[in-house]
């Protein structure tokens, strides 16, 4: 299960969709809604406790950039990928109340639903777009993986059925909290000392270069990351076969090392016997079908 947070850079939208077609993989894109708002209209968004127009990840620079991104979102969905929510302004909601989370979730659906019209292109809005935004987005990942009871209560009441913000000691099946299925990115061994790390590109970036770009060691970081991903995959393929979750961002850190490692892994494993590279929604359906004890609760 490969997912992407933010889902901004249009070139990486194209690259990931091309990869999905080539290796028969479906991805989950946790979209940030400020990225479909052009900077000139930034103040139409206001996060909980924030001033209007503030976003930790910025906005689209132009209407054309935002419209291209919306087109990627819709076409990716048509290709079998999943669009999920990564809120809007990418704030740390660890201390937020349920009402704060609900404000942000409602902003996400409202701003995404009206995006084509707001960008001056109502004629380009696909038929079914607003129903998709209202009813077809079921997954959620909190920025900074900041979880709380207030978050899951808000998710339940706002129509989200699963959360991908957790961290687990290793690959684990989801659990249910407040009526929401909770998935966790696993800790996997990495590097010469085999120290555990969250299976996400940003965490590798921090470990490898303290969050400072070091493209001169890009090939080394790619190899370390690929080895960690493949070892974690092989352990499940030869063992319990619990779905392996890997998280990435639409940023090429350390010269693109982590995207290249992910692409190598997907190319090698996604078409292996008994392997499917799937969205969170597809995984939930598959796990429910295979769980003989209680499919409704996994």
Q: How does the overall form come out from the CA principal axes?
A: globular
Q: Quick check: average pLDDT?
A: 96
First-residue to last-residue Cα separation: 17 Å
CATH topology term: TIM Barrel
Q: What's the total helix number?
A: 10
Element-by-element helix/strand order: EHEHEHHHEHEEEEHHEHH
Main beta-sheet annotation: 5 strands, mixed
Which keywords apply here?
298 residues, alpha/beta, TIM Barrel, five-stranded mixed sheet, four-stranded parallel sheet, 15% strand, disordered C terminus, CE4, Glyco_hydro/deAcase_b/a-brl, Polysaccharide deacetylase
Structural summary, described in words:
The protein starts with a strand and ends in an 8-residue tail after the last helix. The protein is α/β, with parallel strands linked by helices and 298 residues long. Helices cover 40% and strands 15% of the residues.
Summarize the structure.
The protein is 40% helix and 15% strand. By secondary structure, the protein is of the alpha/beta class. The longest helix is centred in the last third of the chain and has 20 residues, at 218-237.
């Amino acid at each position: 299960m490969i997912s992407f947070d933010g889902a901004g850079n249009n070139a990486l939208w194209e690259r990931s969709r091309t990869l999905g077609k080539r290796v028969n993989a479906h991805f989950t894109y946790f979209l940030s809604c400020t990225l479909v708002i052009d900077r000139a209209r930034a103040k139409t968004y206001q996060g909980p406790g924030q001033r209007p127009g503030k976003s930790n990840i910025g906005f689209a620079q132009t209407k054309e950039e935002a419209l291209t991104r919306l087109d990627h979102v819709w076409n990716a969905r048509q290709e079998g990928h999943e669009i999920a929510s990564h809120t809007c302004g990418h704030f740390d909601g660890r201390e937020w109340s349920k009402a704060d989370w609900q404000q942000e979730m409602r902003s996400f659906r409202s701003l995404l639903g009206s995006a084509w019209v707001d960008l001056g292109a109502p004629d380009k809005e696909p038929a079914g777009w607003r129903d998709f935004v209202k009813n077809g987005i079921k997954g959620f990942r909190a920025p900074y993986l900041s979880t709380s009871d207030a978050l899951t209560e808000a998710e339940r009441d706002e129509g989200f059925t699963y959360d991908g913000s957790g961290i687990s000691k290793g690959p684990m099946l989801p659990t249910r909290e407040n009526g929401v299925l909770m998935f966790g990115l696993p800790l996997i061994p990495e590097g010469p000392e085999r120290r555990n790390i969250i299976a996400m590109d940003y965490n590798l970036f921090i470990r490898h270069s303290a969050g400072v770009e070091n493209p001169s060691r890009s090939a080394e970081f790619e190899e370390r990351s690929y080895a960690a991903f493949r070892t974690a995959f092989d352990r499940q393929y030869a063992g319990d076969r619990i779905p392996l979750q890997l998280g990435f961002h639409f940023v090429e850190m350390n010269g693109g090392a982590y995207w290249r490692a992910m692409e190598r892994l997907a190319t090698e494993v996604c078409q292996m016997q008994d392997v499917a590279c799937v969205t969170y929604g597809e995984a939930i359906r598959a796990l429910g079908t295979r769980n003989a004890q209680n499919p409704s609760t996994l």
